[in-house]
C-alpha cells in the first residue's frame, strides 16, 4: 500500500517539478525578447514581471491554501496544471495585458505547487495509517529525484529552443505545457481526492516549524537571484578570461542538492527506532541550518574576496538545500494541523515574499554582499527557531 502511494505520488510530483524547471532557464530571455507598441522591453520591465508573479504568490497564497484544504488537494494540484499552462502559453503574447495575466497565473500556480501535492501525500499517508518513517523516505526520494529532474529539464529546455515549433525562448514553455498535460492525465485516475480533516493533537511546534520555511526559503531565493552576478564578479576579480560556465555551475548545484537529499535519507535510516518518530529530523535539521548559515556567511564575506571561498561555500549551501526540503516536509507532516495545512504553508509565504521583494528592490543599495548578508542573518534566525523546536520535542519525548 505504501509502495503504491509512493509510486503514484513521485511520478506525478517529478512531472510537476519538470514543468516548473523547464520554464526557469529562459524566463528572462523570453520576456526580454518581447516588443510592446513597437518598443523592446527593458530589463526593468522584465524584473517587474517577475515581481508580479512573486507578489501574487505572497498575496493570494493563503486564499489558494484555503481552497486546497476545503475543496481538495487533488483539485488544487489539477488547478496548478491549468494555471501554469496558461502562464506558459501567455509567453507567446505580445500584449501587456496578456503577459501580466500570465505572470499572475504563474504566481497563483506556484503557491499551489508548493502546498497541494505535499498536502495530498500527507493526507493519503494518514488515511492508510502508514508508519511515519515511510513519509520521510518519500520526501527524501522526491527531492533527491527533483535535483536530477532539474538537470534534465535544463538540457531539455536547451534542446527545445531548436527543435520545437519555431524554436526560440518560448519553446521550453510549450514543452512545459505538454508535461503539465501528462501530469494532469495521471492525476485524474491515480489520485483520490482528500480534504482537510479535523486537526490532530501534534500542533505545539507549529509556530517554530513554520517560521523556518519563510526564513530559509527567503534566503534561498536571494541566493537564486544573486549567485550569477556573484560568480561573474568573482571571475572578473580573478581575471578569468573564459566566460562564466553558468550551465555547468547550475548542474553542480543540483548535484549538491541531490547529495543533500541522499544524506537526509541516510540519517533517517540510521536513526535509532526510538527516535525516528520524535527528534531525529529536528536534530538533523538544526545542524543543517547551522551549516547553511555558516556557508552563506562565508559567501558574503570571504567569498567576496576570493572565488576559492565563494564556490565551495555556495556548494555547501546547496547541499543544505537538498537536506532542507525533505526535512521540512517531514516536520510539517508532524506539526501542522491537518485542517489548515495548506493555509499555513501559504500564509508563511507572505514574509518570505516580503523579504525577497525588499532585497530585490534594494539591490542597488545593498549590493551582492549586502543581499547575501541578509540571507545569512535569516538563516541564523531559522537555526535558532529550529533549535527551540528540537528542545521542545526532546522534552516532550522525555515526558512520555
Summarize the structure.
The chain has helices spanning 2-23, 27-32, 43-71, 73-89, 96-113, 116-127, 132-163, 171-190, 206-237, 246-270, 280-300, 307-335, 341-347, 349-361, 363-399, and strands at 35-36, 39-40.
Task: Report on this structure.
Helix 7 runs antiparallel to helix 8 (171-190). This protein has a two-stranded antiparallel sheet. Helix content is 80%, strand content 1%. The two termini are 30 Å apart. It is globular and about 60 Å long. The longest helix is centred in the last third of the chain and has 37 residues, at 363-399. With 400 residues, it is mainly alpha-helical. The protein has helices at residues 2-23, 27-32, 43-71, 73-89, 96-113, 116-127, 132-163, 171-190, 206-237, 246-270, 280-300, 307-335, 341-347, 349-361, 363-399; strands at residues 35-36, 39-40. 48% of the residues are buried.
Mean pLDDT over the full residue set: 86
* Parts with pLDDT < 50 across at least 5 consecutive residues: 201-206, 274-278
Give the SSE string.
Answer: HHEEHHHHHHHHHHHHH
The biggest beta sheet is recorded as: 2 strands, antiparallel
**What class do helices, strands and sheet pairing give?**
mainly alpha
Amino acid at each position: 500500500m505504501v509502495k503504491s502511494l509512493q509510486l503514484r505520488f513521485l511520478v506525478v510530483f517529478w512531472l510537476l517539478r519538470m514543468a516548473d524547471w523547464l520554464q526557469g532557464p529562459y524566463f528572462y530571455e523570453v520576456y526580454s525578447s518581447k516588443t510592446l507598441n513597437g518598443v523592446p522591453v527593458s530589463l526593468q520591465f522584465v524584473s517587474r514581471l517577475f515581481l508580479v508573479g512573486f507578489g501574487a504568490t505572497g498575496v493570494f497564497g493563503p486564499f489558494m491554501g484555503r481552497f486546497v484544504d476545503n475543496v481538495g488537494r487533488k483539485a488544487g494540484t489539477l488547478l496548478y496544471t491549468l494555471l501554469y499552462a496558461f502562464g506558459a502559453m501567455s509567453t507567446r503574447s505580445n500584449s501587456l495585458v496578456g503577459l501580466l495575466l500570465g505572470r499572475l497565473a504563474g504566481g497563483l500556480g506556484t503557491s499551489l505547487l508548493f502546498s497541494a501535492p505535499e498536502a495530498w501525500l500527507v493526507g493519503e499517508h494518514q488515511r492508510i495509517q502508514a508508519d511515519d518513517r515511510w513519509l520521510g523516505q518519500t520526501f527524501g526520494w522526491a527531492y533527491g529525484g527533483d535535483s536530477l529532474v532539474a538537470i534534465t529539464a535544463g538540457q531539455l529546455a536547451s534542446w527545445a529552443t531548436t527543435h520545437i515549433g519555431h524554436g526560440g525562448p518560448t519553446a521550453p514553455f510549450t514543452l512545459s505545457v505538454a508535461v503539465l498535460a501528462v501530469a494532469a492525465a495521471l492525476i485524474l485516475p491515480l489520485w483520490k481526492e482528500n480534504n482537510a480533516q479535523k486537526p490532530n493533537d501534534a500542533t505545539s511546534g507549529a509556530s517554530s516549524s513554520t517560521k523556518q520555511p519563510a526564513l530559509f526559503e527567503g534566503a534561498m531565493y536571494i541566493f537564486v537571484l544573486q549567485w550569477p552576478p556573484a560568480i561573474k564578479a568573482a571571475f572578473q576579480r580573478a581575471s578569468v578570461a573564459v566566460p562564466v560556465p553558468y550551465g555547468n555551475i547550475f548542474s553542480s548545484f543540483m548535484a549538491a542538492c541531490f547529495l543533500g537529499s541522499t544524506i537526509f535519507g541516510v540519517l533517517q535510516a540510521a536513526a535509532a527506532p526510538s527516535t525516528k518518530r520524535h527528534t531525529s529530523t529536528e536534530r538533523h535539521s538544526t545542524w543543517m541550518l547551522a551549516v547553511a548559515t555558516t556557508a552563506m556567511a562565508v559567501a558574503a564575506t570571504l567569498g567576496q574576496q576570493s572565488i576559492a571561498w565563494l564556490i565551495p561555500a555556495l556548494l555547501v549551501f546547496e547541499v543544505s538545500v537538498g537536506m532542507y526540503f525533505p526535512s521540512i516536509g517531514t516536520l510539517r507532516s508532524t506539526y501542522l494541523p491537518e485542517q489548515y495545512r495548506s493555509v499555513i504553508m501559504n500564509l508563511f509565504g507572505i514574509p518570505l515574499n516580503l523579504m525577497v521583494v525588499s532585497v530585490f528592490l534594494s539591490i542597488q543599495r545593498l549590493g551582492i554582499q549586502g543581499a547575501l548578508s541578509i540571507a545569512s542573518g535569516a538563516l541564523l534566525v531559522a537555526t535558532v527557531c529550529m533549535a527551540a523546536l528540537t528542545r521542545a520535542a526532546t522534552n516532550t519525548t522525555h515526558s512520555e
